[in-house]
Amino acid sequence: MDIVIANESHFKYAKTICDTIAESAKVRGTGIAQRTPEYIRKRLSNGNAVIALEGDAFAGFCYIEVWEHEKFVANSGLIVHPDFRKQGLAKKIKKRIFELSREKFPDAKIFGITTGLAVMKMNYELGYKPVTFSELTDDPEFWKGCQTCKNFDVLTRTEYKMCLCTGMLHDPKAKATSKVKKKPDSKGFKRLKSIKESLFLRRKKKKIE
Ligand SMILES: CC(C)(COP(=O)(O)OP(=O)(O)OC[C@H]1O[C@@H](n2cnc3c(N)ncnc32)[C@H](O)[C@@H]1OP(=O)(O)O)[C@@H](O)C(=O)NCCC(=O)NCCS
């Protein structure tokens, strides 16, 4: 498996990446923002994305976006093709994109928003902390990216204060509070997700006969 910094030679994978994201969103039934091949091609060409390939086959992808003049960078769009899941690939891609973010933008706070337990666990292991949305970028262009997520109405209803996604942030200037690395609290993350779902998702009203 090769995990490399993407470039224009990878344009041929843009549609596969979009299709894999769309299929995963359908299967998962929860929020994943949709992307167009044109959007992905831009991310492939600017030196801020990582692609995993097994020979010629697409295996995984993730990209960096820069916000507020490099005050923040987001690691977004993590996707692993179903044929390559549960083998530790997402973890490797996440680590690579995190290292690339630190190399290219050493002073930036690195963040992501996610409903995925797997992603929360990986972020936590990289030193991210869960934070409120007010600690993330307030650049409206970032939040516009949520428009294609099926839970976008939740975000607008709460005036962009919260959503089903949890915000997680790595602040390079924050001092480590403890040298003993705690394990991610998977039960806690699951509970948080189910509380948010019961708070924010409108249930279908029962039909009154
Ligand atoms: C989420 C996703 C990227 C995981 O890819 P993967 O290569 O299978 O993940 P890994 O094998 O590297 O696993 C990393 C960790 O997450 C855990 N994990 C993987 N899938 C999981 C799932 N569906 N639920 C809970 N934990 C999961 C693994 O057990 C592992 O934890 P561990 O280190 O404690 O063992 C992949 O399933 C995917 O592309 N899903 C659809 C897109 C998506 O949800 N993207 C995230 C958008 S925010």
UniProtKB/TrEMBL annotation:
Pfam families: Acetyltransf_1. CDD domains: NAT_SF. Residues 1-149 form the N-acetyltransferase domain. It comes from the Bacteria. This is GNAT family N-acetyltransferase. It comes from Pricia mediterranea.
